[in-house]
Batch of 2 targets.
Target 1
Amino acid sequence: MRGPFTITATALALALLSPGLAQAEEAADAGEILVTGRGLEETPGTPAYSTVEIERKEILSAPSGRIEDVLTSVAGFQQFRRSDSRSSNPSAQGVTLRALGGNASSRALVLLDGVPMADPFFGYIPLPALAPDRLGRIRVTRGGGSGPFGSGALSGTIELDSAATEDLGLVSGSIIANQRGETEASASIAPQLGSGFVVASGRWDRGKGFWTTPGDERVPASARARFDSWSASLRAIAPLAGDVELQARGLVFGDRRSLRFRGADSATEGQDASLRLVGRGGWKFDALVYVQARNFSNVVVSSTRFVPVLDQYKTPATGIGGKFELRPPLGEAHVLRLGTDWRRTSGTMQEAAISAFTGKIAARRRAGGHNTVLGFFAEDDWTLGPVVLTGGLRGDRTVIAGGYFTERSPDGLAVSDERYPDRADWTLSYRAGVLLHASETVALRASAYSGLRLPTLNELYRPFTVFPVVTLANAALRNEKLEGYEAGVDFTASPGLKLSLTAFENRIENAIANVTIAANLRQRRNLPEIRSRGIEAAAHFATGPVRLDATLAWNDAKVHGSGISGDLDGMRPAQTPSLAASATLAFVPADRWSMALTLRHVGAQFEDDLQTDVLPAATTLDALVEIPLGARASLILRGENLFDEKIITRNSGGSLDLGVPRTLWAGFRWGL
C-alpha cells in the first residue's frame, strides 16, 4: 500500500516540475544562471559552531565505498556498533557524535537534501540507501543544538547534499568486485535541461559476506553475513523564476541481510518523496514537504537450538513532514532566520513468537503509536566587522499518542492488551555563539546550545531479544534534553595548512539507555544524565601532489545514575570509546591519478551498561588507488583492513561477532 502511494507522490512531484523544466530551456536561451539544486546558503554564524565539510572528492575516496566509512573521517562520529552496514542488524544503525551514544537510535539528525532520514519507527539510518557516489557535499555540525534544524539534532547534524550534473557528468558508472566474489555496481545519467537538470541513478551491492562468527564458535547452522542491497533515485531541478527553483526527489531502496545463523534474515524497504521550493531573491525562503514509507522484518534464530524463535514479519512505518524558513532583507549586517517545521511518525510492529521445541507459533504481538513535533524557530546572525554574533530560540510542541501493545495466544485469546495515555509538552531550546576573526589566519569561536529528542516508537513500545538478554520497552520514557557548550580555534596559515581544535562539554538529561534490572533482563530507562567532555582536533596539510588529513576525538563520557540505575553511576555509556583517530595520506602525481592510505584507530569500549564485556581497541589500514585508462575510464583498486586486524563488534559473555576482515577490491569507473 505504502510503496505505490509514495511512487505516486513522486510522479506527481515530477509532473509539477514539467512546466519548470520547460521554462528552464527558455531561461537557458536567455542566458540566465543555472540552478544549484541545494538549499539556502549557510549563514555567517555557521562557523561559530564546530562544523566540518567533506567535498565530493573526499566522499568518493572511501575504501569501502560506504557512507559510514566516509563519515568516520569526522572526529567524534560514531555508530552504535562497530559493524558496517553489510554485517549489522539494520535496527542497530544509529549514529551519534561526541560520545553521546549507548543507544541504537540516532542522536544525530541526518538530512538528505533537507529531509530527515531516520526510520520513523526505529530511529536508525538506512545507510546502504545513502550512496556516496550520489552526494556532492557533506556538512557535519557537532553539537550546535536543535536551532533551525529541528527535533533530533541532539548530538549534532549531518547534512547530505545530492550531487549536481556538473559533479556527475552526463553518464557515469562504476563496477567493482572483491576476492569473495562480492560486487558493487552504480550508474547515473544527469542531463542538463536548459537551466535545470535531472539526475537518475541506481546502485546495487550484493555478496555472500564474511564470517562474523569466529572459527572456534561456528556450528553447522552458522552462516556468513550475506547482503543484497539496492537503491534508485530520481531528482529533478528547475527554475520557476529568476531567483526561485523547484526541487523534486524520489528514493526507493531495499536491503536484505543475514547475520550469524542460517535463516536469521532481515529486510528493509523504503520509498521517499519530497518537494522543495527555494527562493534566493531579496526575501529568501526555503519550503519543503516530504513523505516516507518504510518497512522492516527480522527473523531471530536461537543461539542454542538454531531454529527460529521470533518472526518480526512486518513493521510498516510512515513519516510525513515539512519545513518553511524565511530570511527577510535586513541589510548586510544581519541574517535573520524565521521558520517552522513539523514531523509526524507512525508505525506498527507485528511479530510472532515461535516455540523452539515445536516450531509452532506461541504468541502474536502488535505494538505501535504515533509521535508528532511542531517547532518554531528564530535566529539572527549579526556581523560587526571581524566579529559575528549568532543566537536564536526554538519552541517545540511534542505529542506522544496512540501507544499500545497487544499479545494474543495462537487461538486468538488476549494475553495482554495495554493502551498507554497520550502525552503532550512544550520545550524551549536555545543556541548562541560568537565568531572572532582575530587575524587573517586565526578564528576564535565559542557557543552554548540546547536540544531535544523524542523517544522513538521502538523505544516506547517494542521489546526485543538478543539471546539470552531480553530488553523490555517503556511507554513512560521522557524526552531527552541536551545542554552543551564549547570553544575552539581555527588556524589557516594558507590554503594548504589548516588546524582546528575544539573543547566541549555536552550533557543529556533523561538519556534513554538499556538498563540491566535483573539477570539477562534489561529495560529502556531514562538515565538522570550522560555527560561527555572532550577535545576534537583536525589537521589538513597539502603541498604539491601530497595531502594529509588527520582527526582525533578524545572524550571523558560518564553516566550519572540513581535509583534503579544507581549501579551505573560513574560508568561509561555502552558502546562508547574514549579515543578515536583517523589519518589519510594522499598522493596525486598527475591528473586523474590518486593514491591514498587511511589509518584508523578506535579505542576499547564496553558492550553493556555494567561494563562486564569489553570490545578491545582496533587499528586498521585501508587503501585506494585510481589509475586513468584513457580519457573517460579509470581502474579502481581498494583495500579494507589490509593488516587483517581482528575487529570485535559484539561480546556477549564471550560470544563474539567480528567486523570486516582483509578485503581487496578491483574494478572500473567511467564517465562522459
Target 2
Amino acid sequence: MNLSLRAVSAACALTLAAGLASASTASAARAPAADPGRAAMTQAVPTGNVIFFHPDGTGLNHWAAHRMYFQGLDGISNWDRLPNMAVYRGHMSNLINGTSHAGATTHAFGYKVDAFGSFGRDGDGNIGRDRHIRSLSGFNGSVMREAANAGIPVGVVNDGHIGEPGTGAFLAEVGNRDNWQEITRQMILGRTGMNDTAPWVIMGGGEADALPQGTTTLHRNVNEERRAPVNSRQSLRTDDLNLVAAWNAMGSGNLSNDPTQRDDFIVVRTRAEFERLQQALQANPRYAPRVLGLFAFQDTFNDRNEQDLINRGFVRAGMAAGTTGPGPHKQSRLVLWGDHDAAEPGFNPPTFAEMTEVALTILNRAAAQQRNPAQRRFFLVAEQESIDNFGNNTNAIGMLHAMEDTDRALGKALDFLRRNERTLIVTAADSDAGNMTVVSGQVAGITPPTNILPAGRAPDNVAAVATNPSAAAPAGGTAPDSATVNNFLDGVEGRLSPMFVTEPDQFGNRMQFGIAWPGTADYHGGILSRAAGLNAGMLNSRFSARFDNVDVYRLKHATLFGRMLNYPTATLAPTRP
C-alpha cells in the first residue's frame, strides 16, 4: 500500500511524540518526589496542647538497651507505644553533630544556628559574636515565650539544672551557656525589657543560682559542681537577687508558700514539700498554682562514673556489691539521684516522671481556666538531662535508669492523651551521648555456646572487647600497645562488674549483656523522633522524608497557633534589637 509523504511524516511525528511522552513518564517516575515537608501548607492546622519530650542524648541504641533491660527483648516500652515516627536530623549551621545549646535554640526558634555558642541567641558570646534573633514566626523570642505572652500556660521540667539548654533556651537568651545565674534570672523574672509572662511551672535543680550571694542553700554541693567546694552550701550568685522570694511574692501577694492555703506562687525544694503540693492538687481539683521547684544545688542526678560514686559512698546500705533490686524496677545499689545521706533535704528528690505528672496536672487546669477559648491549651517542655550526662560519663546503669524514668514520664503523658485527645506528644534528641552499644555476653562454661542465663545462675562479669584488632603498625608508625586496642565494658557497676540481665523474652529466657562506649562525646548517632496524638501523623506523611530540628519547632508552633510556617529560606535567623 502506498502512503503519501505527508501521511508518513504525520505517522512518524505521532510515534515520536508517543516515545517522548513515554520517556518523560519514565523519567518522572525515576525522579525524586518533591519533599512535602518543604512545601507551603495553606490549610489550617488543628490546635491543642503540646508536650515536647527531650530525652537528651538518646539514639535508637539507647532505646534498644533500655527495652531489653526493663521490658525484655520482646517487650514493649511506652516509647514503643508512640505510633508515629520519623528519622531526626540534628545538624547545625556549622556542625554535623547537634550540640545541646544550639539544638535547643533551634527547637525553640526555628532556625539553625551556630553550634558552638548559641543559647537563645545565634553565635558565640565568648568571642563577642552573638546576636538576638527573631523566631521563624517573626516573634521577638522563642515559641515558648510567644505562647506564654499570648496567654497560653507554659512550663518546663528538667532533672538537671532548670537552666540546662533543653529547657533554658526556651525561656532565656544569653551569650554563654555557662552563665547559669543570668539564665536562671531570665527564666524566673523574664527577659529584661520584654514584659514576659511568667511560666506556670519551672521544676528541676539549680537552687544555688536562685539565692543572693552569701546565702546558705538548703541543698549541699555533693558533686563539687562548678569548682565550688564539695558539700558546700553557698549560693553561686554574684549579686543580691533573691529569685526564690521574688517568685513567691508574685501573684496575689499570699506569701505563705503553703499549697493548703491556695498560695498561687509556690516554691518547693524537697520531696516532702513536693508531696504536700501533690496532696493539695488532689484535694482541690481547681487549684493550679505557679510552681518553682529547686530540688538540688545544681543537678538532681549524680553524673559521675560508677567507680567514682562507689568511692565517694554513693551506695545504698544493705545491698551487696554488684547486685540490683528485683524487676521490673531493678533498683541500682548506686545512688544515682539526690544526696546519698538520708538525713539531707536533697535525699530522694522527685523523679522526672513525678515532676512531669504534676506539671501536666497544673498546666491542664490553668489552660481550662483561661477566659479566652483560644488560650485553653498548654505547652510543656520536659528534658531528662541525666541520660546525656550519664552517657558522657560512660555510666551505663545511670543511663539505663534515666531512660526508664523518661519512659515512665511518657507513660504519664500517654495516660493524659487518652483523656485529652487534643494533645500532641513529640520527642526528639539533639545527639547521641557516648554512642553506647550492647555487647552480648556468652555464658561461661556452657556448651554449646549460649547467651541464655540458666535459672538461678548469677551473671558473669563483663570484660573487654577489641576495638582495633589489627596488630599491624600503620605506615610510618608503631604498633599500639595491646591494652590500648581493648575497650572495657560496663556492667551493673561499671568495669569488671556483673553483666546486665534482660527481662524474660517471649520464651521466658533471660540473657546477659555488657555495654561498650567508643567515647564520652556527643555523637551524631541515629535519632528517631516519635509522636502520638494531635497532628502526630505528620511525621509519617508530611515529614516522612525529612524531619529536622527546624521541623520540631514548626510542628510545635503549628499545633499551638494553627498554621504551619514555611521552612526558612534564609541562612540566618533575622537579627532583632
